[in-house]
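Saturday, quiet lab. Running sequence design on the structure tokens for the scaffold JK sent over.
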């Protein structure tokens, strides 16, 4: 799939509010999640974009396998389709995903639904904070169950690589590690069994994709960022992180910058659980 434009990948808060007031509004998915705070259901009940549906990243946006598969392996497409129908996703209806951490968790839903074949999936730029900053109303309390959807999904509409493919990309200087730099260097490792990074991978913390307001930088800034890492326009590049969640955010930034991202779905959690895989530490 060719990289998209800002208008096809992101939506701002006023535009989303206008779309929600239209006759055929998008389905809005609230994917609040973070390391150490994986269940965002209480936060969703306390304050949300009106009509949005809570999505459980751990249970609905990830499969379950052996440690070598990583902490958040891709779900079976049949399971993803069943979840999307529970959320109310319908054929021919757009989807907007959001969170309260600059898109770092919502991008997982953005990537998975596009991997499953949905074209009209956008991320709310700036998330819930941008919605509040625009002076738009929020809802609270127990949400209503959505009307079930009828969407059909099929796997494989976005490219992925396994550990061997990631090793090949890294050897060619084409694997970006989206984790915080101190995890890349091996100074800190809060969750995975070994510290460090895939040999040859380049440190590219996904937080640097955002401006001070938590919105994505413009395409020219992002393009300069990735060019400085040696990845030119139109070039294929692999993305990795801890377990394939924030790597999706890096993939979105790369698309904004005109690159062609390939996801290492298992990411560091899969690589570090395989004792046969070498580990690099340091900058």
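Result came back. Writing it out in full:
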């Amino acid at each position: 799939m060719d990289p998209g434009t800002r208008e096809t990948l992101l939506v701002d808060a006023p535009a989303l509010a206008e779309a929600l007031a239209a006759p055929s509004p998008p389905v809005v998915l609230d994917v609040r999640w973070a390391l150490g705070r994986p269940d965002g259901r209480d936060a969703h009940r306390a304050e949300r974009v009106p009509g949005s549906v809570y999505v459980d990243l751990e249970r609905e946006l990830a499969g379950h396998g052996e440690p070598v598969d990583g902490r958040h392996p891709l779900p079976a497409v049949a399971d993803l389709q069943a979840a999307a129908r529970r959320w109310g996703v319908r054929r021919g209806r757009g989807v907007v995903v959001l969170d309260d951490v600059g898109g770092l968790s919502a991008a997982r839903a953005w990537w998975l639904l596009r991997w499953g074949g949905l074209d009209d999936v956008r991320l709310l730029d700036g998330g819930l904070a941008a919605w509040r900053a625009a002076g738009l109303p929020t809802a609270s309390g127990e949400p209503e169950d959505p009307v079930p959807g009828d969407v059909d999904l099929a796997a494989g509409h976005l490219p992925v690589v396994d550990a061997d493919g990631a090793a090949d990309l890294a050897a060619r200087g084409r694997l970006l590690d989206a984790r915080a730099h101190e995890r890349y260097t091996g100074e800190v490792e809060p969750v995975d069994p070994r510290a460090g990074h895939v040999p040859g991978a380049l440190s590219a913390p996904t937080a640097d994709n955002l401006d001070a307001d938590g919105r994505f930088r413009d395409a020219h800034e992002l393009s300069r960022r990735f060019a400085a890492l040696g990845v030119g326009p139109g070039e294929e590049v692999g993305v990795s992180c801890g377990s394939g969640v924030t790597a999706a955010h890096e993939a979105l930034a790369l698309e904004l910058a005109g690159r062609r991202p390939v996801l290492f779905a298992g990411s560091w959690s899969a690589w570090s659980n395989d004792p046969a895989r070498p580990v690099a530490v340091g900058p």
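Notes for JK: Residues 6-133 form a domain with the Oxidized Rhodanese; domain 1 fold (CATH 3.40.250.10). The chain has two domains: 6-133, 160-271. Ask whether to fix the surface positions before the next round.
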